[in-house]
Amino acid sequence: MPLIARGIAWIGLYLAVALVPLVFAVLGEAPPGRGFLTDFSVALGFVGLSMMGMQFALVARFQAAAAPFGEDALVQFHWQVSYVALAFVLAHPILLQVAGIDIVGLLNLAQAPWRARFAVTSTVLLLVIIATSIWRRRLRIRYELWQVIHGVAAVVVVAFALTHVLLVGYYVDNAWKKWLWAVMTVALMSLLLWVRVIRPLMRLRRPWEIARVTPERGDACTVTLQPVGHNGFRFEPGQFGWLMVDRSPFAVTAHPFSFSSSAEERESVQMTIKSLGDFTASVGTLTPGARAYLDGPHGVFTPDRNEGPGFVLIAGGVGITPMISILRTMADRGDRRPQVLYYASRSEDDITFDEELEELRRRLDLTIVHIIERPSAGWEGERGFLDRDILARHLPARHQSMQYFICGPAPMLAAVEDALTALGVPAERLHTERFNFV
């Protein structure tokens, strides 16, 4: 099935699962004395609960589901739909209050019935999840701690919400509605079992180890990993994996990094990691022989799935990582299609892989354009920030037919996408990678 058709099918499935509880909630006889507004509020609560349950599926790293969209697109959707689910959840008690049911009085948890206690706790935790995700850096919450809070609280939110529904009982008071919620509960539990038990067990049987850690320019290190007792896996240039080092494969915390080695390399894989705080700041201290686990490969940010007569690679800072994998792979394959690399760095000293890029220029039909934000007095290349004028100066004549891969800070991605669109590049040829999973 083509990717577009698969994408439409996954969207249809998502909408069906989200709306099925709404259909079942309004079918059949309503409990006596309950008007439209009450029924409508309950229906919105059901939809919100269903959407919260499906949040686990969106970030469960199912490659079949992610293939039409990309892992980062699913995470972006996960963020945005969280606000929609929250709106439905909050509309439920507000409409009940408008309908004449004293919801405010139920906020006194010391005297409220248990169904209200579960509902209030679930809602508060949902607000905590969203608040800590939006303001994680401002609150100075470490990424590892945030992952634990996010994962545990999300399970409690859905479990308490389901308990609230069962304790209320009005809208699950006959066999077929109970059957529906039983199926949805089993599906959720199966998903959690897959993510937290089965997948870690599979990783436990396929360990990796740190072979070496190589310092790179730009305050980065390349970590070389070798499979232990198995043949590893094949990846496509530009893809990424989730890395765990010196911890159990059942641990909640994992870190996403692009592969930087050639996809043609069989014996090992490499990840080049820039020190940005938290785990990344300690990468340089990793010791050879340390046990590691890899969940991958993931992602659709690869020329192998987006063929074209040539490629334009646009990297900002650590965004060079997937690009070097693409270039190394093309060189190993003897690919002579034209390529242009725009590489934005803060200074000359921050140009990671500088010497190797010059070597790759000789092995490929490659044009390299460095853009330095804070250049030295002797710098003769492009200066400042990557903008439309710099792009236009170096694009080949057939640039509208080439495939574009863009990876870097979010502001740069937005500016470059707008600039390329203005230069006539079709939207379907623009491929971006955003490593912002919080």
* Spatial gap, N to C terminus: 32 Å
Please report the number of helical segments.
11
What is the CATH architecture annotation of the largest domain? Up-down Bundle
Name of the level-1 CATH class of the largest domain: Mainly Alpha
**Total individual domains:** 3
Which fold name corresponds to the CATH topology of the largest domain?
Four Helix Bundle (Hemerythrin (Met), subunit A)
> What is the chain-wise order of helices and strands?
HHHHHHHEEEEEEEHEHEEHEHE
Could you tell me the number of beta strands? 12
Structural class: alpha/beta
Q: Judging from the principal axes of the Cα atoms, what is the shape? A: elongated
Biggest sheet statistics: 6 strands, antiparallel
Mean pLDDT: 88
Strand residues, percent: 15-25%
CA radius of gyration = 25 Å
**Relative helix content:** 40-55%
User: Which consecutive residue ranges, at least 5 long each, have pLDDT under 50?
Assistant: none
Strand order of the largest sheet: 4-3-6-1-2-5
Salient structural properties:
438 residues, alpha/beta, Four Helix Bundle (Hemerythrin (Met), subunit A), Elongation Factor Tu (Ef-tu), domain 3, Rossmann fold, 6-stranded antiparallel β-sheet, 6-stranded parallel β-sheet, 46% helix, 16% strand, elongated
Concise summary:
It contains 11 helices and 12 strands. With 438 residues, the chain is α/β, with parallel strands linked by helices.
Would you kindly provide a written description of the structure presented here, covering whatever features stand out?
- The protein is built from eleven helices and twelve strands.
- The chain is an alpha/beta fold and 438 residues long.
- It folds into three domains: 3-203, Four Helix Bundle (Hemerythrin (Met), subunit A) (Up-down Bundle); 208-298, Elongation Factor Tu (Ef-tu), domain 3 (Beta Barrel); 307-433, Nucleotide-binding domain of ferredoxin-NADP reductase (FNR) module (Rossmann fold, 3-Layer(aba) Sandwich).
- Strand 11 (403-407), helix 11 (410-422) and strand 12 form a beta-alpha-beta unit.
- It is elongated.
- It starts with a helix and ends in a 5-residue tail after the last strand.
- The mean pLDDT is 88.
